[in-house]
Design a protein that fits this description.
Layout lengths: L1 H4 L3 H20 L6 H31 L3 H8 L1 H25 L1 H8 L2 H19 L3 H4 L4 H30 L4 H25 L7 H17 L2 H12 L3 H7 L11 H13 L2 E2 L5 E2 L4
Length: 289
């Protein structure tokens, strides 16, 4: 009965109120004259936001892999979970504005980097567009294909930004904070279930077979890489950024050269190898050799 009541706009109201309450409690001890305190609030608000975007990107895949009452509830309320993410990000945007306006010297010397600004600004543009098109009055002005393209590309970008941040924190900066590991693991899992759901849609290869065994080995390799980024990242980054054009591209192309996403790309390759495409009539045919 509780799950039936807490859904839709009630779910949004309850979660948004909880986020706001925790923000207000933290603000009581925040020194607005301290740019360090305001920077900490930026990070604190993000930690409230990222679980929701990770849940949004995994929802349809979870339902496909594990159809049931809980995943159906998630699917039914994905829009409102996304709006909860928008509320937490609005808090972060407010703190970014305050620190950049009130402590501009600190912001531009300690916080601002062009690459981060491009990624963050792009994320906020996606978020604003997705939020507006979540309401019928705006959604009716675009086609279903345009809506799907905007929300799919937007949710992937909004997932990629915090996921890559926590990946760098864990494997490059090695911060040793428990929440860095937690959010990295959640972000990785959220996209991994999408890959597995895509593989389920393609259908499993009949029998054992060489391709299925090879694909399973590639998936296992991706899991090893996902846990050992500190070992292979330095050499990979050096190789990928050796060309001058690549080093230049790193300054302004979001996420380039995509090191955090390598294990997931390899997982997708493994799933593709181990599965067969499903025809429109539901029959299976082998993936091309």
């Amino acid at each position: 009965m509780l799950a039936v009541w807490i859904e839709g706009w009630r779910l949004f109201a309850v979660v948004s109120a909880a986020i706001t309450a925790f923000m207000m409690l933290r603000l009581v001890t925040t020194d607005f004259s301290s740019p360090q305190d305001l920077s900490a609030m930026i990070q604190y608000s993000v930690r409230w936001a990222v679980p929701f975007i990770f849940l949004v990107i995994a929802t349809s895949a979870l339902f496909r892999l594990f159809p049931g009452r809980s995943t159906r509830w998630l699917l039914r309320n994905r829009r409102y979970i996304g709006l909860c993410f928008a509320v937490a990000m609005a808090w972060q945007g407010a703190f970014i504005f305050i620190v950049s306006f009130s402590h501009s010297a600190h912001y531009y010397s300690e916080i601002y980097f062009l690459r981060d600004e491009l990624e963050g600004s792009s994320g906020y543009l996606f978020l604003a567009a997705m939020t507006m098109t979540s309401f019928g009055i705006v959604r009716r002005r675009i086609t279903a294909e345009q809506w799907r393209f905007l929300h799919l590309s937007g949710v992937i970008f909004l997932w990629a930004y915090p996921f890559s941040v926590y990946w760098w924190n864990v494997f490059y900066y090695q911060t040793q904070h428990w929440f860095d590991w937690l959010f990295y693991a959640l972000g990785y899992t959220a996209f991994a279930v999408r890959i597995l759901a895509w593989g389920k849609g393609r259908g499993m290869m009949p029998g054992v077979g060489v391709r299925r065994s090879l694909g399973g080995g590639v998936v296992l390799l991706s899991l090893v890489l996902a846990l050992s980024g500190h070992l292979w990242q330095p050499a990979l980054s050096t190789a990928l950024l050796a060309p001058a054009w690549s080093a230049e591209l790193e300054l302004w192309l979001p996420f380039w050269p995509f090191e955090p996403f390598l294990p997931l790309l390899i997982m997708a390759l493994g799933v593709w190898t181990a599965t067969a495409e499903t025809d429109t009539d539901g029959s299976l045919h082998r993936a091309p050799a």
